[in-house]
Amino acid sequence: MDSTRQRALIVANGWLNRPTEIPHYDFLIAADGGTHHCLKLGLHPDYVVGDLDSLDEQVLAALKSGGTQIIQYPTRKDYTDLELALQQALHLGATEIIILAALGARWDQTVANLLLPAALPQVRIWLVDGAQELTFIHSEEELTVAGKPGDTVSLIPLGGDARGITTTNLEYPLTGENLRFGSTRGVSNVLLTDQATIVLEKGLLLCTIIHL
Q1: Mean pLDDT (whole number) for 123-127
Q2: What is the C-alpha to C-alpha distance for residues 51 and 75, in angstroms, rounded to an integer?
Q3: What sections of the chain are H helices per DSSP?
Q4: How far apart are CA 145 and CA 173, in angstroms?
């Protein structure tokens, strides 16, 4: 393994659709109420970040005694707990971040959580929801996605048209083509092998993988 790579696992406070297995991580950050998800999964967070309005003193005391670092912010703040957790992961040198439980009942928070990784092209961020994974592809970037033949791969342009898209090992290939913002053309492609590549010349793509 490349010793320079640091993978952070962040557990947010949305709905938790547990992945088939807990991803490997170098450090674990709970975004406030995401601590409860961690404990249910048998995971002990290295850090708890947020205004702590979802945690009682007993839980905090037990975490502190177990070595968890508590980073508390005021209730009136400019960032959500998840964004603060992302900032902490970057401060710790994360080169890849996996987020669990980012989706929930509130559309405003769900959409905001989905878009958080779009502003951080310097680090690969995956949002994992059960068998579904979401990430972003930025201008002049190549992404390799892994799965099994038959998995669904969708490419959705955001913030304008996505230009110069080339794919390999997808059932409906693209060769230097464009996807128009607001179009569904890139939805529900299919993985033909264990891996596929997507190259984007210009724009922003939301890439989702749904594993069988």
Answers
A1: 97
A2: 5
A3: 34-40, 57-65, 81-91, 107-115
A4: 15
Please write the tens of the pLDDT for every residue from 4-17. 679 999 999 999 99
Measured over the CA atoms of residue 61, residue 63, residue 66 and residue 67, the dihedral's sign is: negative
Return d(Cα 29, Cα 20) in angstroms, integer. 20
Which CATH number is associated with domain 7-130? Answer: 3.40.50.10240
The C-alpha atoms of residue 25 and residue 174 are separated, in whole angstroms, by 34
Given the candidates 2.60.120.320, 2.30.110.10, 3.40.640.10, 3.40.50.720, the CATH classification of the domain at 137-210 is 2.60.120.320
Residue 95 — pLDDT band, cuts 50, 70, 90? very high
Assess whether pLDDT exceeds 70 at residue 1.
no
- Distance set, CA 108 to CA 103, 111, 152 (Å): 10, 5, 26
